[in-house]
Amino acid sequence: MMSCSTASAPQSGQSPPTEEETVVLLHGMGRTQASMLVMSKRFKDAGYQTLNFPYNQASRSLDKISGKLIEFIKEKVKTSRYHLVAHSLGNVIIRDAFRKEYPPGLGRIVMLAPPNHPAHLAKRFNKNLLYRWITGDSGQKLSEEEFYQNLPIPDAEFGVIAGDKGQKLTFSEPNDGLVPVEGAKLEGMKDFLVLHHAHTFIMNCK
């Protein structure tokens, strides 16, 4: 299903989509749509249409952002089938949006470096005023056990790509610098891949 370069897109030697399909991309916390441009080009080269969902986690609640994602898909996706590929916080937004109702046609979901369990660093800094100001409601949610207990598991085929090129200062287990490998795993995933890459630019690895 997955490689780092194009996630669920066909690999060399495989045929492109038999009919037009769209990949909706979601960036991570503190990033912008620009962080997903390399991946967008790779999907386009593989025969997919792409859309880059814009959001600012500091200015809206997670619930409102996930609602905007549903609206974005309804308004922008013009193909009968679409897929979701997200980095970091974008995956939490995708999962939260399952509280609503995705439009028909949802295919695969690829999660890049997803914090699928309460984030260690978010727990450590959630009382810090600067952290709270920068990350907003979403940053607080990443530290809450209760939030994760009620966060939906995708009702669609999904795979996870984790990184292990992290640091040992705050982690005692393999990690990508922000998310431990075990913290990226999620019940129900069809595929799981670990790459020797760090969190911030894992979406650009080849």
Automatic annotation (TrEMBL):
<feature type="compositionally biased region" description="Polar residues">
    <location>
        <begin position="1"/>
        <end position="17"/>
    </location>
</feature>
<dbReference type="InterPro" id="IPR007751">
    <property type="entry name" value="DUF676_lipase-like"/>
</dbReference>
<dbReference type="Pfam" id="PF05057">
    <property type="entry name" value="DUF676"/>
</dbReference>
<protein>
    <recommendedName>
        <fullName>DUF676 domain-containing protein</fullName>
    </recommendedName>
</protein>
<feature type="domain" description="DUF676">
    <location>
        <begin position="22"/>
        <end position="101"/>
    </location>
</feature>
<dbReference type="InterPro" id="IPR029058">
    <property type="entry name" value="AB_hydrolase_fold"/>
</dbReference>
<feature type="region of interest" description="Disordered">
    <location>
        <begin position="1"/>
        <end position="21"/>
    </location>
</feature>
